[in-house]
């Protein structure tokens, strides 16, 4: 049986090889797939919905099993490699009117990834859910800003080099941030 979701995704990816996302229409997609508009809208609410689905489907594997203090670097490097391997998809989505889509996607995927690291590191500390989320946001904003800057500048630098530099900068900092939150909480007990 035909998997229309995958067909639609392949169609969008193919079109993003030559034009930005804001230049692609639902009509373009359904004509390419030789199906009705209703078939498209049965699966997706709009073009941005399908792009979100593509990104989630394809990056989920890159990050899974790499959400702890010992392997977060592998997950982040896998994500950067996926972004570079899908340069047309990423760049032409980023260059479209809906640039914030990539920004939001990057933030959300990295937040979920980093949150697992923070939760793991928070064991044994007296820190609130809010404090853990704050630490997660702090690192997420840094990691996503670096990735977005890398995209904006053409993804020239090797992902391994980026990850190595981040690793050097933040080594021990997840735990250190949580220790500081814990110490602050103990002062005002």
Descriptive report:
- The protein is mainly alpha-helical and 189 residues long.
- It has one domain (52-187): Tetracycline Repressor, domain 2 (Orthogonal Bundle).
- The protein is 74% helix and 0% strand.
- The chain has ten helices and no strands.
- The chain has helices at residues 4-15, 26-33, 37-43, 47-63, 72-85, 87-94, 99-121, 129-152, 159-170, 173-187.
- Helix 1 packs across helix 4 (47-63), helix 5 packs antiparallel against helix 9 (159-170) and helix 8 (129-152) runs antiparallel to helix 10 (173-187).
- The radius of gyration is 19 Å and the shape is elongated.
- The termini are far apart.
- The mean pLDDT is 90.
- This is Transcriptional regulator, TetR family.
- Pfam families: TetR_C_8 (PF14278).
- It comes from Anaerocolumna xylanovorans DSM 12503.
What is the structure about, briefly put?
By secondary structure, this protein is mainly alpha-helical. It contains ten helices and no strands.
